[in-house]
């Protein structure tokens, strides 16, 4: 009996360690591609976008409770970042934070893609099943792509800070009212706006092309980071008009969602996330 009492915890620990090892191995293995050929991409248009948005709204209506649990952290993070900007003398970074926060949106929508995939197949669609996606093969490439988007987000904030310092800085403003007054009523402020919009457009276009279908593809097929990114870029190249329209829709919806203290993102983000899955299904064979 004592040998069983001692042996069971040891056996249990060994099994857990082995499971962790297998999980890490699968995550690292997933960064590369089991399928090395890039999937074929299709031409899409306005009707495909309309259908994707309609199906995204239907998924949200059907999965509302579980979806809100998955995405609730996203607006909370946005509120925390805005609070930091207000209280750390970085008021000039408030708009870049709001405008650039959607750059990491595809990461937050990972669970939504899986829920749409499962609903499409008639499988269980609760939040536990969706979050369980982030294990094994999927975890590695998702983390790598998420890190890429996070780096782009930080670079955007750094670029925005440099633009502000070169035009309206380097002395920080005491309040948002003073900052807005100087921004909208001085030549330096308008110079900052114009340069910032141009640079911001480049960052947004880059993330749009990289994340258009890459995350849903990683969820759906055993491809790695390289194939996922190549496929996303191929969809954007073949469908420049549809890609631009989709980017405008996403940007406009996310901006509207951030206005009431980021609370609107609890509705906007799920619909866009589900719709992204359905757009992927219409764009990639």
Which helices and strands occur, and which strands form pairs?
Blueprint: H1 2-31, H2 46-62, H3 64-71, H4 73-87, H5 94-100, H6 105-108, H7 110-121, H8 127-131, H9 136-167, H10 176-185, H11 187-211, H12 214-220, H13 225-238, H14 240-258, H15 265-283
The N- and C-terminal alpha carbons lie at a distance of: 59 Å
Helix fraction bin = over 70%
- Number of discrete domains: 1
H/E element order: HHHHHHHHHHHHHHH
The fraction of residues assigned to DSSP E strands is under 5%
Task: Describe the main β-sheet briefly.
Answer: none
Mean of all residue-level pLDDT scores:
81
Q: Using the CA coordinates, give the radius of gyration.
A: 22 Å
Extended strand count: 0
Shape: globular
Going by helix content, strand content and strand pairing, the class is mainly alpha
- Low-confidence spans: pLDDT under 50, at least 5 residues? 1-10, 12-28
Number of helices: 15
């Amino acid at each position: 009996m004592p040998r069983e009492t001692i042996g069971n915890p040891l056996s249990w620990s060994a099994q857990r360690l082995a499971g962790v090892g297998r999980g890490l191995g699968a995550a690292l293995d997933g960064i590369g591609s089991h399928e090395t050929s890039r999937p074929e991409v299709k031409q899409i248009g306005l009707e495909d976008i309309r259908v994707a948005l309609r199906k995204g709204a239907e998924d949200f209506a059907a999965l509302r409770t579980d979806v809100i649990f998955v995405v609730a952290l996203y607006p909370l993070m946005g509120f925390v970042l805005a609070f930091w900007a207000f209280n750390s003398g970085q008021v000039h970074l408030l708009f870049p934070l709001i405008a650039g926060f959607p750059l990491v949106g595809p990461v937050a929508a990972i669970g939504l893609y899986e829920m749409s995939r499962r609903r499409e197949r008639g499988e269980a669609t609760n939040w536990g099943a969706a979050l369980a996606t982030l294990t094994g093969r999927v975890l590695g490439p998702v983390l790598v792509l998420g890190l890429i988007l996070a780096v782009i987000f930080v670079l955007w904030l750094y670029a925005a800070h440099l633009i502000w310092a070169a035009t309206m800085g380097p002395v920080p403003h005491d309040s948002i009212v003073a900052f807005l007054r100087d921004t909208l009523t001085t030549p330096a402020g308008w110079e900052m706006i114009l340069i910032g919009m141009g640079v911001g457009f480049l960052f947004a276009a880059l993330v749009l092309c990289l994340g258009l279908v890459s995350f849903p593809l990683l969820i759906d097929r055993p491809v790695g980071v390289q194939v996922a990114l190549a496929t996303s870029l191929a969809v954007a190249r073949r469908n420049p008009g549809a890609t631009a329209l989709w980017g405008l829709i996403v940007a406009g919806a996310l901006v509207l969602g951030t206005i009431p203290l980021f609370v609107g993102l609890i509705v906007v983000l799920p619909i866009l996330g589900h719709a992204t899955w359905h757009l992927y299904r219409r764009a990639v064979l």
